[in-house]
TrEMBL record:
Alphabetical list of Gene3D superfamilies matching this protein: 3.30.300.30, N-terminal domain of ligase-like
Keywords: ATP-binding, Ligase, Membrane, Nucleotide-binding, Transmembrane, Transmembrane helix
Superkingdom of origin: Eukaryota
Bilayer-spanning residue ranges: 240-262
Family to which this protein belongs: Belongs to the ATP-dependent AMP-binding enzyme family.
Keyword Amino-acid biosynthesis on entry: no
Upper lineage: Eukaryota, Viridiplantae, Streptophyta, Embryophyta, Tracheophyta
Domain AMP-binding enzyme C-terminal: start-end pairs: 454-529
Organism (species): Aquilegia coerulea
Molecular function (Gene Ontology), one example: CoA-ligase activity
Domain AMP-dependent synthetase/ligase residues, every copy: 41-403
Name by which UniProt lists this protein: 4-coumarate--CoA ligase
InterPro entries: AMP-bd_C (IPR025110), AMP-bd_C_sf (IPR045851), AMP-binding_CS (IPR020845), AMP-dep_synth/lig_dom (IPR000873), ANL_N_sf (IPR042099)
PROSITE patterns, per the entry: AMP_BINDING
Amino acid sequence: MAQVSSRSGFCETDSIFYSKRKPISLPSNQSLDLTTFISSRAHNGKIAYIDASTGHHLTFPQVWRAVDSVSSCLSDLGICKGHVVLLLSPNSIYFPVICLSVMSLGAIITTTNPLNTTQEIGKQIADSKPVLAFTTQSLLPKLTSTNLPIILIDSEKTSKNQKIVASLEEILKKEPSQTRVKERVNQDDTASLLYSSGTTGASKGVVSSHRNLIAMVQTILSRFRLEDGEQTFICTVPMFHIYGLAAFASGLLASGSTIIVLSRFEMDEMFSCIEKYRSTYLPLVPPILIGMINNADKIKLKYDLSSLQSVLSGGAPLSKEVTEGFLEKYPTVKILQGYGLTESAGIGASTDSLEESRIYGTAGLLSASMEARIVDPETGESFGVNRTGELWLRGPSVMKGYFSNPEATTSTLDSEGWLRTGDLCYIDEDGFIFVVDRLKELIKYKGYQVPPAELEALLLTHPEVLDAAVIPFPDKEVGQYPMAYVVRKSGSKLSESAVMDFVAKQVAPYKRIRRVSFASAIPKNPSGKILRKDLIKLATSKL
């Protein structure tokens, strides 16, 4: 047996880092879908989902009865194994019900952002070819140009619209069919088709199997050890995104936790819900966390947050300043971080205790049953501890590939199942992963490589900077140089030259910022990642 370092998890023989967490167990029964896997688990909880705005709730038995009713109806409409079903909806207590119903049939769920334009949704429809869509009355116009049959989620079927075949309300009133013969679904069958965020390029459909999602659920359960008493989570992150789908539409349901669903994110509503439902866990993205620090005194004066035990941050790494700032303002609340990709079903690395989170800048230790390599992007050589290269991941939650895109699949997944994450990282002597930057986002200045995230972290330490993003700006002589978009704190008169001088004093000459633009906000995707391609477009449109 090859010798694996108990400290770093690194094995010299095969140059692989192995997870130091206890491995997850996967069901041996191959004929198993995610829905059956979750519904067959014992749970102590009583209420599964509560709608934050109406107080309407679903108990666990009601969730599974609703799943039965919806899958019976879909079956009657001819939806069967392999069919794709689109879900276009804000967060709702019925979002998980629809996802689990579709997957129970061996059909494939594809979700999309309600904020997407008709054109962007059209592109996803053209690519994924769904046979049916679930949507709400207000989002209906975004699907009018398609010929998809539609099930309305939030209102009765009163419309004369020919495409509306049913409403969720009438489906839920029907008794589930007792005679329906279920098609056999295997763990290797496709369960979901989520589109990756496309922060650096075009969005691609990520194909995840039932096995991938079962592994994801098992990882979440082992991470939070939620069987010890009932917990209440606030669902602030979008369910259409892997972060929301992983946690709220499947992982936490399997634990028997109660989930308070906010249909859209609103800071005051989130705090009211923590107070009203005595919530214990708050998953969020870094911009919300920063908002909680900046307004801590007002928030604590207005709301009782004493029930809150942990905040879970994902989407982008937290700096030392942010972590310490939060702990100072909310001393009784733990911060836990997570790192994952749509391509790995949201699983990759995590900090599972405050001690781990205090190792600043880390994405955490490798998730249970996950393996990693650090690879030189130029030569393909695998590195050991404290060497920076591209992070490759392999494990049971890693996707099957990209939908109808063999080229993208081959360039991202190798024949041995290694997923090239596109993130530049190193793993230290204790096995902690540190994300340096996105490989595709490195700024190439005279042949030097400049990581934007490093400059952004530095800018955020300036007392007058509220938020910042750094992008490559094209230049004939040097190739590219760093340009910063900066959001000033209110009342600040910070100048361009002051920003450049602040950075210049602390970095090597090739990393200096050579152009600054002030903005009212930094564009980000739902998981908090900076949409650099939008800023690059804005900056270069004036050229």
